[in-house]
Design a protein that fits this description.
Elements (H helix, E strand, L loop, with lengths): L2 H11 L2 H21 L3 H10 L8 H10 L6 H5 L5 H13 L3 H8 L10 H12 L8 H10 L1 H19 L5 H14 L1
The structure holds fe (ii) ion (FE2) (2 copies).
The site of one fe (ii) ion has 5 residues, from helix 2.
Length: 187
């Protein structure tokens, strides 16, 4: 499947705003891949399909979880929205032939994970700063991301952790671990 075919397929699976978000993520992922010397084509592909599982129905989610023996942790049980990352990785592999690096980037794009490589970090942050995203500080974050991926992710994580805590949503342990790791590496 070439990137145009992937786009056509995605249009059938996603609402227009989410499709546009996916294309925005694709563009930002390519831009960052160029800056950081990662494979631009793979980055485009991963950015484009990272949310492929975001609009699955409850039934479809259940089928996939059972069919592929996907482990659902405690936090995911409470906040099933998180699951679209793991499910997206499986769909990317099974239906789009994604390689391991792309699968991992998709798997980690929502909670983050301390095992993320540079490629996964690009997809993580591209998702949060793509051109359709509007929130206080997004422009500043775009600038930081072009200079320092880890710093951009750290700023994002602080934001996510604060927001979830305010709303009473449990922060995923992987998110907290990644923050610890990034803070440790800064010293
Ligand atoms: Fe997502
Ligand atoms: Fe996304």
């Amino acid at each position: 499947m070439n990137i145009e075919e992937v786009k056509e397929e995605l249009k059938t699976r996603l609402s227009t705003p989410r499709y546009e978000h996916s294309v925005g993520t694709m563009k930002m992922a390519k831009k960052l891949a160029k800056i950081y010397g990662e494979d631009e084509e793979q980055a485009e592909f991963a950015g484009l399909i990272h949310d492929v599982a975001k609009e699955l129905t409850k039934d479809e989610i259940e089928k996939l979880v059972n069919g592929y023996d996907i482990e659902v942790d405690e936090v995911e049980k409470q906040n099933t929205k998180l699951l679209h990352a793991k499910l997206g990785a499986v769909i990317a592999r099974e239906e789009f032939g994604a390689n391991k690096e792309v699968q991992d980037a998709i798997r980690y794009h929502t909670t983050g994970n301390k095992k993320m490589d540079k490629f996964a970090k690009i997809i993580y942050i591209a998702d949060k700063i793509e051109e359709n995203r509007i929130y206080d500080g997004v422009d500043k974050l775009r600038k930081i991301a072009e200079k320092d991926l880890d710093e951009a992710i750290l700023v994002m994580l602080e934001h996510v952790i604060e927001k979830n805590t305010q709303r009473g949503i449990k922060v995923h342990p992987d998110t907290l671990e990644l923050r610890e790791e990034l803070i440790k590496n800064k010293r």
